[in-house]
Amino acid sequence: MDDEQLLTVDEAAARLRVSRWTLYCLIRSNELRSLKIRRRRLIPADAVTECIHNLMEAA
Q: What's the burial of 7, exposed, middle or buried (CB within 10 Å: 0-12/13-18/19+)?
């Protein structure tokens, strides 16, 4: 697995151009998949793409 497949919260927020707070809201509402490894929250890169697609469909 390369480094580009899992994004940090800051990297995912930057890709979506939202704040960390908004990103955590997306995670809590199950609109954005994430995983937790010990204390780190990581977001699969394809989950960001999937989230964008789902949000566009809802708009």
A: buried
Asked whether residue 1 is assigned to any structural domain, the reply reads: no
CATH code of the domain containing 24? 1.10.1660
Q: How far apart are CA 32 and CA 48, in angstroms?
A: 7
Residue 40 domain-assigned (yes or no): yes
Q: Tens of pLDDT along 29-41?
A: 999 999 999 999 9
Cβ count near 47 (within 10 Å): 20
